[in-house]
């Protein structure tokens, strides 16, 4: 935690090293909604505008009466510093709650990890990682994510097939590779974050996504998603919170239509 805090302080000092008395909040544009986004993080954000985060950005820009502009940068190490903290853009549409590098808005949805299987496969009925049916089956998972801890504790370590957490999605596609593996039979299942897998599975007639809502031990498998702004942008955060509150129904409609699995703050599924 100290390392994250130190990194933010250094970034903040660099931003303030310009004209005397300049404030980080002054970087916010008043002539456009400037969004920080990954150009190849489908189905969330995409340079071609088809991601569900693109649609939420369009909704916010419309409500603000401003044109929408993007600053594209691949997510991974350095993303927040190169985009938001360097003043190239003013909001990250999807940001996990609790990261010290940004100031979080109120959360606008909560989603959950789940298991992807073939609809006609022998694991189609699995809805928890402690199910004995998973043993001796090849299961894809992103290394370092919360479900990997559950799987190891359930005795599935030898069955796990890991993919990297931080990759440049312009050249690597871990989620797509795992879904292809399940579809073609080189994997028996994949355990993935709902907003990544849900929309892709929705469009696939052979696969299904089952939310993991029955896990009882830590770490939890459902998480709040906010928008991220610079730590000093208090007024901007309040404006976004107001936009979220007034447009929550429209935001939910975008998420449901995209196929994002939604849960409430207690991990109970919210159906369309």
Automatic annotation (TrEMBL):
Signal sequence bounds: 1-22
Gene3D superfamilies in alphabetical order: Periplasmic binding protein-like II
SMART domains: PBPb
Keywords: Signal
Domain Solute-binding protein family 3/N-terminal: 32-261
NCBIfam families (UniProt xref): ABC_peri_MoxJ_2 (TIGR03871)
This protein's name: Amino acid ABC transporter substrate-binding protein, PAAT family (TC 3.A.1.3.-)
Originating organism: Paracoccus chinensis
């Amino acid at each position: 935690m100290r390392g994250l805090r130190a990194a933010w302080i250094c970034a903040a000092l660099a931003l303030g090293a310009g004209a005397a008395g300049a404030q980080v909040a002054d970087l916010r544009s008043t002539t456009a909604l400037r969004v920080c986004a990954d150009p190849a993080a489908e189905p969330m954000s995409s340079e071609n505008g088809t991601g569900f985060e693109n649609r939420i950005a369009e909704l916010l820009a419309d409500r603000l009466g401003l044109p929408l502009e993007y600053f594209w940068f691949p997510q991974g190490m350095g993303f927040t510093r190169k985009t938001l903290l360097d003043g190239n853009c003013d909001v990250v549409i999807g940001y996990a709650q609790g990261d010290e590098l940004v100031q979080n808005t109120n959360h606008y949805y909560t989603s959950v990890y789940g298991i992807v299987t073939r609809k006609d496969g022998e694991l189609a009925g699995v809805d928890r990682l402690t199910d004995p049916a998973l043993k001796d089956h090849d299961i894809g998972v992103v290394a370092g994510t919360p479900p990997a801890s559950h799987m190891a504790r359930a005795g599935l370590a030898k069955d796990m097939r890991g993919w990297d957490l931080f990759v440049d999605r312009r050249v690597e596609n871990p989620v797509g590779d795992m879904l292809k593996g399940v579809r073609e039979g080189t994997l028996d299942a994949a355990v993935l974050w709902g907003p990544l897998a849900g929309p892709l599975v929705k469009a696939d007639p052979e696969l299904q996504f089952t939310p993991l809502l029955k896990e009882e031990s830590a770490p939890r498998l459902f998480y709040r998603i906010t928008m991220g702004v610079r730590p000093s942008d208090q007024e901007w955060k309040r404006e976004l919170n107001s936009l979220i509150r007034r447009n929550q129904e429209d935001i939910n409609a975008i998420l449901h239509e995209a196929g994002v699995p939604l849960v409430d703050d207690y991990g109970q599924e919210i159906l369309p």
